[in-house]
From TrEMBL:
<protein>
    <recommendedName>
        <fullName>DNA 3'-5' helicase</fullName>
        <ecNumber>5.6.2.4</ecNumber>
    </recommendedName>
</protein>
<dbReference type="InterPro" id="IPR000212">
    <property type="entry name" value="DNA_helicase_UvrD/REP"/>
</dbReference>
<keyword id="KW-0547">Nucleotide-binding</keyword>
<dbReference type="InterPro" id="IPR027417">
    <property type="entry name" value="P-loop_NTPase"/>
</dbReference>
<dbReference type="GO" id="GO:0005829">
    <property type="term" value="C:cytosol"/>
</dbReference>
<comment type="function">
    <text>Has both ATPase and helicase activities. Unwinds DNA duplexes with 3' to 5' polarity with respect to the bound strand and initiates unwinding most effectively when a single-stranded region is present. Involved in the post-incision events of nucleotide excision repair and methyl-directed mismatch repair.</text>
</comment>
<dbReference type="GO" id="GO:0033202">
    <property type="term" value="C:DNA helicase complex"/>
</dbReference>
<dbReference type="GO" id="GO:0000725">
    <property type="term" value="P:recombinational repair"/>
</dbReference>
<dbReference type="Pfam" id="PF21196">
    <property type="entry name" value="PcrA_UvrD_tudor"/>
</dbReference>
<dbReference type="GO" id="GO:0016887">
    <property type="term" value="F:ATP hydrolysis activity"/>
</dbReference>
<feature type="binding site">
    <location>
        <begin position="31"/>
        <end position="38"/>
    </location>
    <ligand>
        <name>ATP</name>
    </ligand>
</feature>
<dbReference type="GO" id="GO:0043138">
    <property type="term" value="F:3'-5' DNA helicase activity"/>
</dbReference>
<dbReference type="InterPro" id="IPR014017">
    <property type="entry name" value="DNA_helicase_UvrD-like_C"/>
</dbReference>
<dbReference type="Pfam" id="PF00580">
    <property type="entry name" value="UvrD-helicase"/>
</dbReference>
<keyword id="KW-0413">Isomerase</keyword>
<dbReference type="GO" id="GO:0005524">
    <property type="term" value="F:ATP binding"/>
</dbReference>
<dbReference type="GO" id="GO:0003677">
    <property type="term" value="F:DNA binding"/>
</dbReference>
Amino acid sequence: RPTAQMDYLEGLNTAQRAAVEALDGPVLMLAGAGTGKTKALTCRIAHLLNTGRARPHEILAVTFTNKAAREMKTRVAGLMGETIEGMPWLGTFHSVCVKQLRRHAELVGLKSNFTILDSDDVIRLLKQVISAANIDEKRWPARQLAGIIDAWKNRAWTPAKVPSGEQAAFNGHALDLYKAYQARLKTLNACDFGDLLLHMVTIFQAHPDLLADYQRRFRFLLVDEYQDTNVAQYMWLRLLASGHKNICCVGDDDQSIYGWRGAEVGNILRFEKDFPGAKVVRLEQNYRSTPHILAAASAVIEGNSGRLGKTLWTATPDGEKVRLIGHWDGEEEARWIGEEIEAMQSGTRGMTPFGLDSMAILVRASHQMRAFEDRFLTIGLPYRVIGGPRFYERLEIRDAMGYFRVVMSPEDDLAFERIVNTPKRGVGGKAMQDIQHMARSNGVALKEGARLAVEGGVLKGKAKGSIAQLLADLDRWSGLAGEAGIGPVELAEQILDESGYTTMWLNDKTPEAPGRLENLKELVKALEQFENLGGFLEHVALIMDNESEEAGEKVTLMTLHGAKGLEFPAVFLPGWEEGLFPSQRSMDESGQKGLEEERRLAYVGITRAEEVCTISFAGNRRVYGQWQSQLPSRFIDELPEDHVDVLTPPGLYGGGYGAAAPQTSSSFESRVAKADVYESPGWKRLQERSQQAARARAKTTPSQARDMVIDMKAVSSFGIGDRVFHQKFGYGEVMEVEGDKLLIEFDRAGPKKLVAKFVVDAAS
Ligand code: ATP
Ligand code: MG
């Protein structure tokens, strides 16, 4: 009985429609990139609702990133009939599990207000556990132990379930340390990310009635990006689905890119075994990319062995070939991409203009982002960073969050340790030891231990006074947090001001301090959307991407991993060089398997592009402060000649990709090819130039070198009275020039002192 609301069915092809309309029983949709898996999954949710087969709260859908979850929510809302109220449970594995675990925390010895530790906290805690076991942390680093424990949790191994063959790790200590770590987490009323899944699996296995409740409640399960689920996630799904078996999973084995985090492509093969009679749907038409882009992606992925294999075709018109360009170094690459984006935005490339929102730069490693960020700030090109060095991981934000955490969960020892002497309150190592001793011997949390230490006269002098003050403050703020009438913004401002934390940065004379204050303001601003601090802390703990939602069009900068499932009309893929992409680390650690995972990542990258895909590499790159000469990636050799255009890099052969059309020559080998490019006189000249520059830089520190460059470029170009523009502060006038710094009177933001490279001439 299709109603007007079911128009969405018309837009699907036969195979998609079959997957959408098979509402009962297990369904596995296995298909290549851009074939409309996510679209079909979304329509399926809408169809379940619109046909009355399910009510919103009976549906549970899991995706891989917060961004994807948000996207799906919006799409489902758009497809839902107007009479349907409420929304399905729709989120990441972690966000769904944390919701469940809050309800049943006591079953694994936690309280419902448990804290979720981030990776930094985990390392700090593991260091304590390692040193308490009298193991030398220098020889047996916490980071390595964290990796082992995480891998075990991904396989759903509680300490009792770690097989004996695996226990030799970490010099035979790993299992004991794992146990000690779990015990510490329990006393702290905390868990790590792996625990969210592991605890829920444990709870479901031990409490069949509770599991049955959930099975009755969630009658329909849906999973996107299924190829990247790990064993713990798979078990959690299988437990939930084992009654009704209404589970629909969609995925692509060629896009499995989280093997390093324990994802198992094998889950795809197991599906048909665990859910006999599963309907398997294959989709072959790609609706996203042009034939050139699709051909390039397909050729690259063919280099992998053991694929399930599939054919992909598209009906879209030919469009641009994949563009390939080499540069002499990474800075040059960033500069070229910045200019190219501006050119494509204004339509001077002979293509229809692209809005900034429709362009993305996808990098292999987040450290590659810095060059782009610097460049874009300089030229004032608006951009957003998704993932990478995240806003919430910055020092000042973590400190502020530390305060909020102690206020909300007084037993959060890690947070207490973080803030007890920040800003400095004269609480030294000795005082801290006394507090820890007090806490341990009384079996209480550090905050309570501190109180006992003050009252029992254990603490003396300055430490005593300032700890007493801090405790009184914390209690007062906790009290306020429980009261109606004070919003989270006001509360956060009070905490930051009264604790002296804001003042600490106001008095700080280092160049970073103003930026940190800006970030704190940004943090308080983020709180506006929340009803209380607790909800905000939960949100931040789960957040995976930096979602500053300022208005305006922006270029997206993100990692290849974060870009999974997304699409952009124009995509830039920089840094296709051996060692960087494929990543040396991944090849060293996992050999051929690692290389194949890198190749899948290349496939994911190329298939994000709808119309224009630009791949680039640099001949030289500064890695950890050292200049290295780079070889183009082997993946470049795997690109099919007929579908690639090679652009001439600026400077090379005296050429430039300005008004001139892309230069192409007859033989592909000679075009892409490293050998030819590297043998050419132009390239040799560039090599020499870059080596000279590298030698000059080697004598100075990187920051000195940068200052030298800034001196040359910036200082001479601005004078008193110049009109300038800054991305954040807008237009202003230069009042003073002092070395590379400018004092600028901004029209709206008032006077600011800035490094010259961050502003541009307003006239240009
Ligand atoms: P990925 O593997 O990258 O996650 P996917 O298989 O999930 O890709 P979608 O993101 O669902 O693919 O779809 C890719 C694009 O194709 C989207 O823009 C979507 O709107 C469009 N699309 C999907 N199915 C159809 C269809 N039947 N008709 C027209 N457009 C479609
Ligand atoms: Mg998808």
